[in-house]
Amino acid sequence: MLEEFNDIFDFNQTAKRSGCTKVKHKINTDDSPPIKQRPYRISPAERRVIEDEVHKMFKADVIQQSESPWSSPVVLVKKKNGEWRFCVDYRRLNRVTKKDVYPLPRIDDALDCLAGARIFSLMDLKSGYWQIEVDDKDREKTAFVTPDGLFEFKVMPFGLCNAPATFERMMDTVLRGLKWNICLCYLDDVIVYAPDFREHQQRLRKVLKCIQDAGLALNSKKCCFGKKKLTILGHLVDAHGIYPDPEKVVAVEKFPIPQNITDVRTFLGLCSYYRRFIRNFADIAKPLHELLKKDVKFSWNLSQAMSFTTLKKLLTGDPVLGHYLPHAKTLIHSDASGYGIGAVLVQEQNGTERPIAYASRTF
């Protein structure tokens, strides 16, 4: 089957994909006058990086010379591997852009769709944003300035406030009728799921055909097919349930004792993503959240230390949630304290009660 659709993968150098024409990115700035910014000061080494990136984008046909009255500066962000990421600082443009409220899927809703699935495939779009054109009349607004000139994007760049909404709209258009039924789509990730291998082949063929017809290209290095276990949307899933992403769990386990408010906020961000796995999360995390209140001075006491240690222990103790089964007997257990409430959704599966999700909040 993959050989049949080999033209949609990036390793096929003879089949250049056209990109999706079903949706174009628009930048509605109403009657705002053009925003003009000068390039930021950069080092000679950074200038060479920018020159190289501009050359690559010209070669890929994603930018062109510009005579736009708009201009935004370039910034380079260092990756973990030491390489540079080319970015355009569109913050001022974003402030005058009318916001697109097209929704992104809720991750918990997406995970709930996987009940009953035993076989999974994951597909990733190659440079996904660059597969959507910018509307001709709005290209000038994407203009960016470097020490060597003014350029504008022909395709949708990173950094625009409405880019995620446009991308999700495009994918929903391409996969209309299939999303939520045989596949999930979260930005440039497409997940196909099925109860058995034969059904999975049929579903996968339908999704690949839609991608092919839309002119989209897949990143072969980030695609995997016919797996019994898969890490998606920050979670590990299989036929038995949903687990936190092992890599994220390691990050929690190795997190050092917070030394300031920034550390506390980062740790809570890591843990909060998996709060549905932890009973009475809000109560446990309350001492740490107290440190984030306005005008509260950072102070690491016994209550904060216990909260920190308990969250680590619970998240690194192999927590697992069952898949929600529509016809299984479902119960809600709740409790409350003087400063918070908590609940757990459970189902009777295979003769035992399995937790499906935990919820909690403080007063």
Automatic annotation (TrEMBL):
Annotated EC: 2.7.7.49
A GO biological process held by the record: proteolysis
Domain Reverse transcriptase span(s) in chain numbering: 58-237
InterPro entries xrefs: DNA/RNA_pol_sf (IPR043502), Retrovirus_Pol_polyprotein (IPR050951), Rev_trsase/Diguanyl_cyclase (IPR043128), RT_dom (IPR000477), RT_RNaseH_2 (IPR041577)
Keyword tRNA processing on entry: no
Cited CDD domains: RT_LTR
GO molecular function: endonuclease activity; peptidase activity; RNA-directed DNA polymerase activity
Top EC category: transferase
Keyword Nuclease part of the UniProt annotation: yes
UniProt keyword terms in alphabetical order: Endonuclease, Hydrolase, Multifunctional enzyme, Nuclease, Nucleotidyltransferase, Protease, RNA-directed DNA polymerase, Transferase
Cited PANTHER family: PROTEIN CBG26694, PROTEIN NYNRIN-LIKE
Protein name: RNA-directed DNA polymerase
